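Methods: holo model generation. Sequences were used as deposited, without trimming of termini or removal of tags, and paired with ligand SMILES retrieved from the corresponding compound records. Each pair was processed once, and we did not select among multiple samples. The sequence and pyridoxal-5'-phosphate SMILES for this entry were:
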Amino acid sequence: MKFVSTRGQVPPVTSAEAIRQGIAPDGGLYTPDTLPRLTRADLEQMAGQDYPTVATAVLALFLPDYPRADLEKMVAAAYAVPDKFSQSGVTPIRKLRDNQYILELYHGPTCAFKDVALQLLPHLLTKASQLTADSRESVILVATSGDTGKAALEGFKDVPGTKIIVFFPEQGVSAVQRLQMITQEGENTFVVAIKGNFDDAQNGVKQIFTDSAIIAGLAERQMTFSSANSINWGRLAPQIVYYIYGYLELCRRQAIRIGDPINVAVPTGNFGNILAAYIGKQMGLPIRRLICASNTNKVLTDFIRDGHYDRRRQFYTTISPSMDILISSNLERLLYYVSGANSAAVRSWMEELKTSGEYRVDAKTFAKIQADFYGDFADEAETQTTIKDIYQSCGRVVDTHTAVGQAVYQKYLRATGDAAPVLLASTASPFKFNTSVVQAIASPQAVAGRDEFELLEDLAKLAKTDIPLGLRGLEQKPVRHRTVCEPEQLGAVVREILKMRD
Ligand SMILES: *Cc1c(COP(=O)(O)O)cnc(C)c1O
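and the model returned the structure below.
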């Protein structure tokens, strides 16, 4: 297996090299040129195995140049329970209603699904440096809509040979998310608020990656950039694992038998999480439909419905901020596969997106997308109603992103009548979005005048669970990061952090 750029203008590389570089030099995303197959016998063999064992087996397929013994050690360190992931396990599933199962992806140290990949990525990157005999320091640049930033900071904190710089939208994250980031510890961590939205942060970071002056400056200092965003293959591979594990868990609970089809519903922003499920399906995991759920920023819903990607629209700040995105980076990987590895087509679509803000895929490509995906969205009121409904009918508290996924799944069910068992990806702990969640379950008055910390307590009472470990004691942590900048200043800020002269 080789890793090719979706834009096809650089030579293929190994998985270690792809992870080391983060993004390909031609601006494309590194992607496996072939996808391994999972046979029924493979699934039978993995059934009943624990998470680390399944993870090692699946990761070995996608990281062929990593020695198996190293993978085993990295997986054991990343997914240690209860040190890293909570007592409930790495990605437990819970029954919600008949045929509806929640795949809980938020039991890591920062309470969002990003932890599953970002607890492992630092190990993968450190090993990649060894495997590629590259002794330069890695400077990890991250654009975050809220959850990636904290998860990456926790993962890379004090990892030798790395520095991490995170940019988050000043107005676009929840109070808990913000506190988690600006109180970050570690000698190699830098956190910067930008006066813009996530797309501004992501575009700025992508530009720095290909800024030849900054890259030359880095080279002089024996440094190199890498990425902890889901453009990095090292973020994607660990996410494939939990769809396979989730499927096997459904088998173990006798909700299905090996080979039976399921559906998967994923609240989506940058298209990384659902792409991992798509890859699982391409490998042969019996997934019938990938249900792509958006919030009011429904650029993906429209694209899946008519093949026209159009970012020229109003950007909304919603109660599911981690999905407030109009440019979904990982869609580029999907386009590469569904166009039949047509990197010239991908290149021209991405060029159109950049220059005119839109593109339309050809009919054949569109038909393939429609065969695998269902797209819909939930507005703010539907999201709130869904949180309340699930609380009242099932006694469970879900976060705003998960609620978007559930609301859209209900629409899918009504539209198609396809009641096959479903895995509903639950991407964050409700405690991270406590204000919106308490307001949805109780009332706007219930949150009036309550601060973040009181709301954590209020939610613990409603949910009848403890505040997750990673969110306890936030009020006592000193603020360590205060830099705020304009989107145009990202390059200057990076230079200053890395002590480069202009
Ligand atoms: C990042 C995130 C998403 C979106 O995931 P993508 O991989 O970017 O599509 C959804 N929900 C939460 C809570 C997130 O943190």
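The longest strand covers residues 162-169.
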